[in-house]
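Supplementary notes for students who missed Thursday's class. We covered one full example, reproduced here. Read the sequence, then the structure, then the short commentary at the end.
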Amino acid sequence: MPPWSDFEPFVVSGLALGGVYALSGVGLIVLYRATGVLYLAFGAAGAMGALIAWSLQRAGAPGWVGWLVCVAFGAAVTLGYGMIFGPALAGRDPLVKAVATLGLTLVLYGVMDLLWTTSGGQSRAITLPTDGSGFSVGQVQVNWTQVIGLAAGVAITAATGAFLRYTRLGTAMRAMANDREITATLGVPVRRVEAAAWLGCGVLAGVAGILLADLVALDATTLTFLVVSSLAAVLIARLRSIAVTFAAAIVIGLVHDLLTPITSLANYRDMTPFVLAAVALLVLSRRTVISRSREEY
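Structure (token representation):
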């Protein structure tokens, strides 16, 4: 086992990564609660936006232009998909809703592979201005991008919780999660509420794409399937609790990066989301069975 000093840098990177997973998970939960759709194209939308931002920077555009375009692309693709296919999915079975966005994922991934081929291409990277400055915690150097990653997760989680609880639109989203038909009969503009959920999820996809392209790698495959980590956090929260999603995302990010210094386990760190999600679901299922058994007897 390596000494603790070898793990310290990975605590920082794990917290930053967990923060980005958290804001991604919040976007997935809000959309799911409002529409019933599990947005599996979240990572692909962010990845393609980040690649567009990188291309704009190479062409000489200011960095902030690329970042805004990335967020706008994620929002536009997600909102467009929701407005076109959302109404048709509203009355479908949960399984159909869960896999409906796989088609969009494959389309976006195919376009990225066509326009930004990974075979023999040059290395790509998005560097934020906050990478070059920061502060030290003991012997560990922390840059401001890592701070932003964690802070964004905390801020989005807190703001979304307050939004859902204290605003009319948030109340409408919570009502739709319980019963879409009854909510519509009460005069709630269901289509507008759904559009807001799709748009918000798309904006977060763009933000996550930029941050992950800097913190992890600007690679279409890597960014597309990093949504699995956010999805694992959402499943641990059972598609309900934003607070549990945040906690699970932080744990996933920490465990993933803390395995890096352990040579015998480093090659298996990508399994972290699956293992943690499976363990959490088994434990939660067992508690549910036990509690029901006690109620019956």
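Commentary. The chain has one domain: 4-296. Residues 149 and 189 are 34 Å apart (CA to CA). If anything here is unclear, bring it to office hours.
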